[in-house]
Specification:
The chain is α/β, with parallel strands linked by helices. The protein has one domain: 3-Layer(aba) Sandwich (Rossmann fold), CATH 3.40.50.300. It has eight helices and five strands, in the order βαβααβααβααβα. Helix 2 runs antiparallel to helix 3, helix 4 packs antiparallel against helix 5 and helix 4 packs across helix 7. It is globular and about 45 Å long.
Length: about 210
C-alpha cells in the first residue's frame, strides 16, 4: 500500500475524533493526501448499519452485533479504505477491527479470537500501519461524555463496568502487538497527546 493507514481506538469519551482531526490537519499541512473516515458508518451502506447498531429500538444480540460490525467493515475497506491506500492517500479511521475485538470480545464476552477472525475475513487481512490507542479509565471517560450534551446511543448507555472490560480488552491487544499499537495516556491535555502522536507518525514517515 502506498498510503499510510492509521486507526484510532479507545473506549467512548477518550477524544479519538479530536485527535484524528488534528492529525489529519497535520498531515495535510505536510502536503500529504488524507482521507478521514470512521466505523461504523464510513459508507452509505455503513450509515444504514450504524443506525441499526446504535439507534434502532429493541435488543441486538451480541453475535448479531458482531456480524453487523463486520459487514460494515467489509464494505468500508472494499469501497473506501483499500482504494484510497492504493491510490497513495493516507487513511485515518476513527475505529477499526480492534474495536470489535474489544467491544464484542471483552465487553460482550464473546470469543475474542473468533471476533478477530471474522473481522480479518471481512477486510481480507488488512491491518493499520499504526493503531493509536487512547487509554483512559472508564469512569473518567463517562464523565467526559456527559459534558458533551449529546444523548447517548445504545452502546454509550452501557454500565461503567462494561467499558472498563472493553478498556482492558484494548490494553491486552496493545500488549500483544506492540509494534502496531501506540498507547497514549488520554488523561493528558489535547496538545500533549497530539504532540506524542505526531512524533510517532514522524518515526513512521522516516
Amino acid at each position: 500500500m502506498a498510503g499510510l493507514f492509521i486507526s484510532f481506538e479507545g473506549i467512548d469519551g477518550v477524544g479519538k475524533s479530536t485527535q484524528a482531526d488534528l492529525l489529519e490537519q497535520y498531515l495535510v499541512e505536510k502536503g500529504r493526501n488524507v482521507q478521514r473516515t470512521l466505523e461504523p458508518g464510513g459508507t452509505d451502506l455503513g450509515q444504514e448499519i450504524r443506525h441499526m447498531l446504535l439507534h434502532r429500538k429493541g435488543e441486538v444480540s451480541a453475535r448479531a452485533e458482531a456480524l453487523l460490525y463486520a459487514a460494515d467493515r467489509a464494505q468500508h475497506v472494499a469501497t473506501k479504505v483499500r482504494p484510497a491506500l492504493e491510490a497513495g492517500t493516507d487513511v485515518i479511521t476513527d475505529r477499526y477491527l480492534d474495536s470489535s475485538v474489544a467491544y464484542q470480545g471483552a465487553g460482550r464476552e464473546l470469543a475474542a479470537d473468533e471476533i478477530r477472525r471474522i473481522s480479518l475475513f471481512a477486510v481480507e487481512g488488512l491491518l493499520p500501519d499504526l493503531t493509536v490507542l487512547l487509554d483512559l479509565d472508564a469512569a473518567s471517560a463517562r464523565a467526559r461524555r456527559k459534558t458533551t450534551g449529546v444523548a447517548p446511543d445504545r452502546l454509550e448507555r452501557e454500565k461503567v463496568e462494561f467499558f472498563e472490560a472493553v478498556r482492558q480488552g484494548f490494553l491486552a491487544l496493545a500488549s500483544a502487538e506492540p509494534e502496531r499499537f501506540f498507547v497514549v495516556d488520554a488523561s493528558q491535555t489535547v496538545e500533549q497527546m497530539q504532540a506524542q502522536i505526531r512524533a510517532r507518525i514522524e518515526s513512521l514517515l522516516g
